[in-house]
Every structure is written in structure tokens, then in C-alpha cells.
């Protein structure tokens, strides 16, 4: 898939800005006030493609996840009667742009990029992975390497901290809010912020001592340790947050209602036992129904605390 038209403006850290009222881009409507784009009532605006494009949130090695999702996408083909193709996105912005342009139909957006995807690309999230007992989520951790001399967040003063991207909850928004509120530490003023682009990059950077510290999602960290990409002994955690919702999965708003229901059916009817998804996401065992309005309330509050605005261009 070729690169799309100019980059959407991602969430920015702007002191004094406010985002108390979440709203969608003007191209979308929300008549039922559920905070996500309505499905168009004009049939001429609906899409029913013969091939569906699916993208998982950006990762260090997309080829690994193309294989991880292969069985699930075959299952979706059986349920929908459509061809389904995996699209390896390189950034959150590219993923949002693709859905906004109508070239991405089904996606897993990471926690922090959900509000921007919903507001700017008409993304309709409806599920996320959960354990068999219904528990879900992950924590943001600030990690360093054992000999860095950084033993607590206050030791970040005068040092460097790697974030992932400005759209990431655990990779930027949550740590920015927490460091400011709890430790009076502000990027640029108290420490030098760096941006790695992905959680995988941040984790590898700390493990290889390229970054003195990084804010990451521990779900990604744990999977990388489980796959022996990094060793647990290479990193140490100096802060762990409350639990946040994890990657959501959803569809473009303008797919036909019938197709959207078939896609939902594919997620909720998938059998995890013995699957590649279960092997990779070992703590999960089902797709749990969610709503953006309820489950992403805490994330919108973090955005508000950070002075985040959603600008769609």
C-alpha cells in the first residue's frame, strides 16, 4: 500500500489547551452520542469491498505478526466470504491515514491512538483482547538498564527519556501526565525527550543501552521477553502505572452494516485454543465487547490533562 496524502496532525503536548468535549471531525456524524462515527444512511457512501485490508498496530517486525494473525484472517475470510489481507503499517499516523482514505477496513489501534483514530478516521472500535476470566489491560512502565544509575523517576532529571510517539498512551501521554503531576518533571525543562517510534524500539534501545530510560507498555515488554528478543536481566522497572485498556479492534465507519456485523461475528466466534494468537498473546483467550465511550474514558482524561487536541487535516 502506497503512502497516502499528507500526514494527519497527531496529538500534541500543548500547555494550557483543553479537550473537555470530545468531538469527531466534520466529515462524520454522531447522532446517537456514543462518541463514534455513525454508519452512513446514504447507501452511495457505503463500502462493500471484495478484499478487506486488516492492520495491526505498528510493531518492530511486522512479518512476525502477519504470521501470528494468519489463522484469524483465514477464519474471517470464512465468516465474511471476503478475501482478507494483512497490511504491515509502519506508524500510527500511517494507519490512521489509511483508514481515513478508505484503504484500511479493519484495524487494531493501540490504546493512545484510539481517540485520534475515532475522531479523524471514522474508526468504530468494538472489541479488545481479554483473559478468559474477563480481565484485560496493561500498565505503563518506565524502564532503564541495571547500571544506568536511574533508580526512580526523580533520577530522570537532567537525563534522557525515550517516548514512542505522541499518539501513544503508555509511550507518551500517560508518562507525561504522571511525571508532571507526581514528580514535577516536564519534558524539555527537566529531561530530554526522545522519540523511538515504537515500543519495540524503545525496549531494544534500553536493553542495548542506547537510551538510559523509556516509557513503554509492559504487554509489549513481556511478549519480547517471552520471545527472547530481550532478556529480563537487561531491563529494570522504576515505575508502574494503573491498568489501562489494551489495543482495540474495529472497523471503518462506512462499511455496510451487514459487513460490519459479519466482521464482529468473526472476532467473537474465533476459537483461541491452540491458535497462533494464543501462542503470541498467551494471557488472552477471547475478544471482549467494549465501547469507546466507556472503556476509553480514562484515556480521554489523560489526554485532557496533557492538553491534547485532535486536529484532522
From TrEMBL:
Listed InterPro entries: PhnD
Superkingdom field: Bacteria
Keyword Signal: yes
Keyword annotations: Signal
UniProt signal peptide: 1-20
An example Gene Ontology CC term for this record: ATP-binding cassette (ABC) transporter complex
Pfam family, one: Phosphonate-bd
Database matches in Gene3D superfamilies: Periplasmic binding protein-like II
GO annotation terms (biological process): transmembrane transport
Signal keyword on record: yes
Similarity remark: Belongs to the phosphate/phosphite/phosphonate binding protein family.
Descriptive protein name: Phosphonate ABC transporter substrate-binding protein
